[in-house]
Design goal:
Elements lengths: L40 H16 L7 H15 L11 E5 L6 E4 L3 E5 H6 L3 H16 L2 H8 L8 E3 L7 H5 L5 E3 L5 H17 L6 H19 L8 H4 L4 H12 L11 H8 L3 E2 L7 E3 L2 E4 L4 E4 L5 E4 L4 E5 L3 E8 L7 H5 L7 E11 L2 E10 L2 E10 L2 E10 L5 H11 L1 E2 L2 H6 L3 E7 L6 H5 L8 H8 L13 E6 L2
Parallel strand pairs: 1-3
Antiparallel strand pairs: 2-3, 4-5, 6-18, 7-8, 8-9, 9-17, 10-11, 11-12, 12-16, 13-14, 14-15, 15-16, 18-19
């Protein structure tokens, strides 16, 4: 969100050749791919998109232990004894809870921490990365750019907060970077290339179909919870279907039966232990129906039935009856009255006679109404500290719920106490060993800060309905400890 300070940290740099983990260090300059296609215009376009991708996906995630684990997987995939000059790649771990991975021409690879949290072993991660490498080696990105002429890869702006609804176009107009989608044939070709790559590298080739199944389970959970911005997820640009899983299994059978190859689960789980899960401290936290930002020292809640989406760009919430809420903050001189600020021209369709000053939980505030293109809006601005926070609530003109929802949201806005700010901690993935007598239910009950604990525990650990856990095995939980 724009009111948060987003720190861009160095990611990991991967070189081709024999694996030497001591050589893997966070890159001091991850933007430049100067050894790949130095004069290739498509690689240069990809290089130009790198900062925009960082801005869209929350910057880079820095964790040397995690970076070494990911670099080891990429290094294994890129080392080919029969090819002394293989493709060089640079991989960036993105600081986003969304589950995604993608590649740009020129060898730029990206994987989100959300995807790392969902995978369960090194072979699954290798399958995802090898798939994206397949797009690069098959020149799919170049083919698309040539087909679309001057359209720059990843520059299409879409209003994706609420899909194609009018609310997204009117109430929550915010452009987000969206990666150009590949065709179905290109995706299937990348699947085949990727599975061959991980098989040749010694990884379990069936990892690709396993992760596709995890993605399907994740998609179902996300649909119900609404916890993620689906447009920035892997499934938004990578088709997923039972037929695709069957094709992946068919390709894998070319290397042998299930159980063939290395999974390297322990190394992978050790790498993701402590991985940030969900929102970052810089963006604030969503806990149930409440948004809390320890750095800014503020909080507000939305009514039951609304789902909050906290992204790097903004905080939004959607609810019944096509209603939507947007929250952000701006700098406004203290000498400027809030009523004057509301009238200063940033509100389309403002009904000037509705502008009035008020106070909300001891903070100076102003409210107003607006109408535009069949929608009605409540605008509330609140001054707290050196910031002015804006709450925009949108509803169809026929709705009778706008006032009650807007008043409930704005009335919940408050300052956090010092104790509350100190108690807020980010959620993390923790790896625990199952003890005798523990069950899926008792392990899921240990998780904090998340809804539908049992369902999430199953998805994170790729456990089917009816499946259980065995003493001595390692599993993932989500906790703030």
């Amino acid at each position: 969100m724009p009111i948060a300070l987003v720190v861009l940290l160095a990611g990991c740099q991967v070189l081709s050749g024999p694996i030497n983990e001591q050589a893997f260090r966070p890159s001091e300059n991850p933007v430049t791919v100067d050894t790949v296609a130095r004069n290739d215009k498509f690689a240069q376009l990809a290089k130009q998109q790198h900062p925009r991708i960082l801005a869209t996906y929350g910057g880079e995630y820095s964790d040397p232990k995690l970076e070494r684990m990911v670099a080891k997987v990429v290094g294994t995939l890129t080392f080919d004894a029969d090819n002394p000059s293989p493709q060089t790649y640079r991989i960036t771990i993105l600081n986003s809870p969304n589950v995604n991975a993608f590649a740009l021409p020129g060898g730029y690879l990206y994987v989100t921490r959300g995807l790392l949290a969902l995978a369960n072993d090194s072979a699954e991660l290798a399958a995802v990365i090898a798939h994206e490498m397949g797009h690069v080696t098959a020149n799919h990105g170049v083919q698309r750019q040539q087909k679309e002429a001057e359209e720059v890869l990843a520059s299409k702006v879409v209003t994706d907060v609420l899909g194609e609804s009018q609310v997204a176009k009117v109430a929550l107009i915010r452009g987000k970077l969206r990666l150009a989608q590949f065709s179905r044939n290109q995706e299937l070709e990348a699947d085949a290339i990727g599975i061959r790559s991980i098989g040749r590298a010694g990884y379990d080739p069936f990892a690709a179909s396993r992760f596709l199944q995890s993605m399907a389970a994740y998609s179902e959970l996300r649909t119900v919870t609404g916890a993620q911005d689906a447009s920035l997820d892997f499934l938004a640009s990578h088709p997923n279907a039972p037929q695709r899983i069957e094709l992946a299994q068919r390709h894998a059978r070319g290397f042998g039966t299930p159980g063939t190859g290395t999974v390297d689960r322990d190394s992978f789980l050790a790498g993701i232990d402590g991985l940030l899960f969900g929102d970052t401290p810089e963006e604030g936290y969503v806990r149930g129906n409440t948004f809390q930002h320890p750095g800014l020292g503020i909080a507000f809640s939305v009514p039951t039935g609304f789902v909050i989406d906290n992204s790097a760009a903004e905080v939004t919430a959607t609810g019944p009856g096509d209603m939507a809420i947007r929250f952000d903050g701006v700098s406004v001189e203290k000498s400027v009255a809030l009523t004057d600020y509301v009238r200063s021209g940033w509100v389309t369709g403002l009904e000037t006679n509705t502008v009035q000053a008020t106070t909300i939980n001891g903070n100076d505030a102003a409210t107003a109404r607006a109408r535009a293109d069949g929608w009605q809006f409540d605008i509330t601005v609140i001054r707290s500290g050196d910031r002015v926070y804006r709450l925009l609530t949108a509803a169809p003109v026929a709705s009778t719920s706008l006032d009650s929802v807007a008043r409930a949201v704005s009335g919940s806005f408050r300052s956090l106490t010092a104790a509350e700010k100190a108690a807020l901690k980010p959620l993390r993935i923790r790896i625990v060993t199952v003890k005798p007598g523990q069950t899926i239910g008792s392990l899921a009950a240990q998780m904090v800060g998340v809804d539908r604990k049992l369902d999430l525990f199953r998805v994170l650990n790729a456990l089917p309905l009816g499946g259980g856990v065995s003493a001595g095995t390692k599993v993932k939980i989500v906790t703030d400890r």
